[in-house]
From TrEMBL:
The protein's name in its UniProt record: Transmembrane protein 246
Molecular-function GO terms, alphabetical: glycosyltransferase activity
GO biological process: GPI anchor biosynthetic process
Top-level taxon in the UniProt lineage: Eukaryota
Keyword Flavoprotein set for record: no
Transmembrane segments: 12-31, 260-279, 291-312
InterPro entries registered for this protein in UniProt: PGAP4
Alphabetically ordered keywords of this record: Membrane, Transmembrane, Transmembrane helix
Gene Ontology cellular component list: Golgi membrane
Length: 413
C-alpha cells in the first residue's frame, strides 16, 4: 500500500513540476493579465509594443477606407431611411486636445472596424452607422470631415444640432447650444444626451452607443443577436442596456462571492477531468484504484486547476468562452464605463430626461448617472463577458503625455 501511495504521489509531483516550471510560465509569457506577464515584460517594452500594434491598426484602417467607394458606402447606410431600423450604431467622437493624440487615429480604427462589420455581417438586416461629432469646433475634427464622405454624420454644433434643438424641449435646446460648460463632466453628459436623443429620432429598435476609442470584436453582432434571441426575446425580458465592454483590469479573480464560486467550479470541473485521465486512462496496471487514491487525485486536481486558473487569471480563462455564443456569460451589469452600450429604444426618452436634470455642478461621470437612473427606475441591465469590444485609448486626453497601463492594449483585432 505504501509503495502504491508513493507511486501515485510521485506521478502527481512530476505533473506539478512540469506544469508549473515549464508550461504555465511559457503561457504567462504570452498572455497579458496573467500573474507572471509583468515579470517577463517591463513597462517600457509593453508601451513600445502597444504603440506598434496601434500603428498597425491605424495603417489597416486607412487602407480600408482607401479601398471602398464613398458613394456606395453612403447608399448602403441610406437605403433604410424611411423604415424602422433593427440596429443603429452611433460613434460618439470629439477631437482630442493634443496634436500628437490626433495622430494615434483611435477614431479611424473604431470606425473602420464597425463599418466593415455592418457591411458584411447579416445578423441585423436593417442597420445603420452614424457618426456623432460633439466637438465644439466640428470643422477642426479632420477625421470626421474625412469619414463623413463615407458615413452619415450629425454634429452637436452644426445644422443637425439646430434641427434637434427645434424638436426638443427648450431646456435641452439651451443645453445643446451651450459652448461653455461648468466642468468636463457636464459637457460629457450633455454630449451623450445629444447623441442619444438624436439616435432616438432615427427610429431604431436598438441603439449601440460606442465611444471613438472602442474597437468591436468580429463576433460582436452575431453574439448580440444570439443574446437577444435566446436570453431576451425567448424569456420576454425587458432591459435598459447591455454593456459590451468592461475594463479587463477589473475582470480578474478577486475576493468576491461570485468569483470565488467561479474559481472553485473550475477546480472541481478540472478535478473530474484529472481523475478520469490519470486513473481511468493512464493507470498502467489496469485495475481499480482504491477510493482513497481517487480522493487524492480529486483534491490534487482541484488544487492543480485552481492554481493554473489563478496564474493565468480570469481574463485569459474567459477567452475559452469565445468558442461558442452559448458560452458567453450574461449577468447583471456593473455601473462603470460607457465605451460600448446597447440600449433598448423605449428607455431613451426617460434616460435623456434624467441626464438633463443630472447635468449640474458636482455631478458624477455619465456612466454613474446612467447607472443611478436604472437603479431609480428598477430597470434590469446586463453585461456580456468576455468583452465584445477592445479599448484602444492608451493615451488619456485629460493629461497630455499620460498613458494608461499598456498591458491592456496588447491585442490584435
Amino acid at each position: 500500500m505504501a509503495s502504491s501511495s508513493f507511486y501515485h504521489f510521485r506521478r502527481l509531483l512530476i505533473l506539478y513540476l512540469i506544469t508549473f516550471t515549464f508550461i504555465v510560465p511559457i503561457l504567462c509569457y504570452f498572455l497579458p493579465y496573467s500573474k507572471l506577464f509583468k515579470v517577463f515584460h517591463s513597462e517600457k517594452e509593453m508601451l513600445i509594443n502597444a504603440k506598434d500594434l496601434n500603428k498597425e491598426r491605424l495603417a489597416d484602417a486607412n487602407a480600408y477606407f482607401n479601398s471602398i467607394d464613398k458613394t456606395e458606402s453612403r447608399q448602403f447606410y441610406n437605403q433604410h431611411n424611411q423604415e424602422r431600423l433593427d440596429l443603429l450604431v452611433v460613434i460618439v467622437t470629439v477631437q482630442r486636445k493634443s496634436a500628437d493624440l490626433q495622430k494615434l487615429g483611435y477614431f479611424l480604427q473604431a470606425t473602420a472596424a464597425m463599418d466593415k462589420l455592418l457591411k458584411h455581417n447579416q445578423s441585423f438586416r436593417k442597420k445603420k452607422l452614424v457618426i456623432c461629432n460633439v466637438d465644439a469646433k466640428p470643422i477642426n475634427h479632420t477625421d470626421v470631415t474625412f469619414l463623413s464622405t463615407f458615413i452619415p454624420t450629425i454634429q452637436r454644433y452644426g445644422p443637425s444640432g439646430r434641427d434637434l434643438s427645434r424638436s426638443t424641449t427648450p431646456l435641452r435646446a439651451a443645453l445643446y447650444d451651450k459652448h461653455l460648460h461648468r466642468n468636463r463632466y457636464e459637457k460629457e453628459t450633455v454630449d451623450y444626451m445629444f447623441c442619444l436623443e438624436s439616435a432616438y429620432h432615427m427610429n431604431s429598435s436598438y441603439i449601440l452607443m460606442m465611444e471613438d476609442d472602442a474597437i468591436p470584436h468580429r463576433e460582436v453582432l452575431s453574439n448580440v443577436k444570439h443574446v437577444m434571441d435566446t436570453k431576451l426575446h425567448h424569456n420576454s425580458r425587458e432591459f435598459g442596456y447591455i454593456k459590451l465592454y468592461y475594463p479587463q483590469k477589473w475582470q480578474g479573480f478577486a475576493f468576491e462571492e461570485t468569483r470565488i464560486i467561479e474559481l472553485l467550479s473550475i477546480g472541481c470541473m478540472g478535478a473530474g477531468i484529472f481523475v478520469f485521465f490519470l486513473i481511468c486512462l493512464l493507470d498502467d496496471r489496469k485495475k481499480s484504484s482504491p477510493f482513497s487514491i481517487q480522493i487524492l487525485y480529486f483534491l490534487a486536481g482541484c488544487i492543480y486547476f485552481i492554481l493554473i486558473a489563478e496564474l493565468l487569471d480570469r481574463q485569459n480563462i474567459m477567452e475559452l468562452r469565445r468558442f461558442s455564443p452559448s458560452l458567453y456569460s450574461f449577468k447583471k451589469s456593473p455601473g462603470c464605463c460607457t465605451q460600448a452600450m446597447l440600449y433598448s429604444d423605449h428607455i431613451l426618452p426617460s434616460l435623456v430626461n434624467f441626464l438633463q436634470d443630472y447635468a449640474r455642478p458636482g455631478m458624477d461621470h455619465t456612466d454613474i448617472a446612467i447607472y443611478k437612473f436604472t437603479l431609480k427606475h428598477n430597470i434590469p441591465c446586463y453585461q456580456i463577458e468576455p468583452n465584445l469590444f477592445h479599448h484602444v485609448g492608451l493615451y488619456t486626453s485629460l493629461v497630455e503625455g499620460r498613458y494608461k497601463d499598456p498591458e491592456g492594449f496588447l491585442f490584435h483585432v
